[in-house]
């Protein structure tokens, strides 16, 4: 596979279109997508701390209602703590094909911005204390860096405390 020019412009995604429409300042960071590489791989390739790389997780409650959780790349979600905080009986990750259907993105390229279906968004509270985050831009191998407050302003993301160290 040919090396990508890291300064090259990446074609628009629903996520970048939404960000541009709302005049959000962001930078584009393409990298070579690696199946099952996760945030560890993207952080390594882009020279970022994995803690500032935020993963977008499509989950569902006991009634199969979808929701999005934004979590530090080096943490996992305590579904018990999350369920308790959002008033659900239980929360679990969606199967990949279900997540793809809800978000309109392929798993590994899911952005919380520009999703096909409107879903409640929950963000790990400590993410909001970071000056900038890297989050998926709507395609595998493509992160955007922006102010985490954008998640609250554009998505109505509600802070939760459900992080567990990996």
TrEMBL record:
Transmembrane segments: none annotated. One of its GO terms (biological process) is translation. One of its GO terms (molecular function) is lyase activity. Its EC number is 4.2.-.-. The keyword Nucleotide-binding does not apply. Pfam families: tRNA_edit (PF04073). Residues 39-149 form the YbaK/aminoacyl-tRNA synthetase-associated domain. Keywords: Lyase, Protein biosynthesis. It is an enzyme of class 4 (lyase). InterPro entries: Prolyl-tRNA_editing_YbaK/EbsC, YbaK/aa-tRNA-synt-asso_dom_sf, YbaK/aa-tRNA-synth-assoc-dom. Belongs to the prolyl-tRNA editing family. YbaK/EbsC subfamily. PANTHER family: CYS-TRNA(PRO)_CYS-TRNA(CYS) DEACYLASE YBAK, CYTOPLASMIC PROTEIN. This is Cys-tRNA(Pro)/Cys-tRNA(Cys) deacylase. It comes from Acidovorax ebreus (strain TPSY) (Diaphorobacter sp. (strain TPSY)).
């Amino acid at each position: 596979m040919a090396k990508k020019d890291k300064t090259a412009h990446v074609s628009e995604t629903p996520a970048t279109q939404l960000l541009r429409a709302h005049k959000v300042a962001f930078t584009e960071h393409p990298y070579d997508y690696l199946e099952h590489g996760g945030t560890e791989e993207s952080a390594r390739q882009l020279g970022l701390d994995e803690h500032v790389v935020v993963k977008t997780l499509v989950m569902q409650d006991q009634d199969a209602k979808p929701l999005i959780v934004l979590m530090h790349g080096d943490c996992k979600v305590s579904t018990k703590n999350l369920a308790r905080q959002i008033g659900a009986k239980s929360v679990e990750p969606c199967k990949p094909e279900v997540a793809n259907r809800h978000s309109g993105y392929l798993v590994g390229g899911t952005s919380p911005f520009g999703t096909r279906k409107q879903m409640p968004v929950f963000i790990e509270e400590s993410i909001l204390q970071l000056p900038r985050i890297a989050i998926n831009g709507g395609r595998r191998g493509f992160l955007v860096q922006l102010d985490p407050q954008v998640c609250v302003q554009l998505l109505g993301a509600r802070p939760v405390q459900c992080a567990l160290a990996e």
